Amino acid sequence: MDIAPLFAASVAIQLHVGAALAALALIPVILVRRKGDRLHMLTGRVWTLAMALTALSSFAVHEIRLFGPFSPIHFLSLLTLY
């Protein structure tokens, strides 16, 4: 697999992918640490910020247009932000 297309993509897509990968990488740390532990709580906050950034950056991605400039996945982004 080649990541060259990611580097050729727009900044919005790069930000979206980076935030999503950060959130994905934090999940094992959150699940392994004891609930209420300092690192568990800090990692959870960073994960929340990464998910919010992923959802917000999705509104700048308009590759699939079904409802004007938006697609059904944007409704999931709204739900995530809610």
Offer a quick outline of the entry:
By secondary structure, the chain is an all-alpha fold. It has 4 helices and no strands.
On the 0 to 100 scale, the average pLDDT is 88
Total number of helices: 4
Oligomer kind: single chain
Our Rg estimate from Cα atoms comes to 15 Å
Q: Determine the N-to-C terminus distance.
A: 35 Å
List how many beta strands DSSP finds: 0
The ordered string of helix (H) and strand (E) elements is: HHHH
The helix/strand class is mainly alpha
**Largest sheet, if any?**
none
Helix content, binned percent? over 70%
Overall domain count? 1
Strand content: under 5%
Overall geometry: flat
Which residue ranges are poorly predicted, with pLDDT under 50 across at least 5 consecutive positions?
A: none
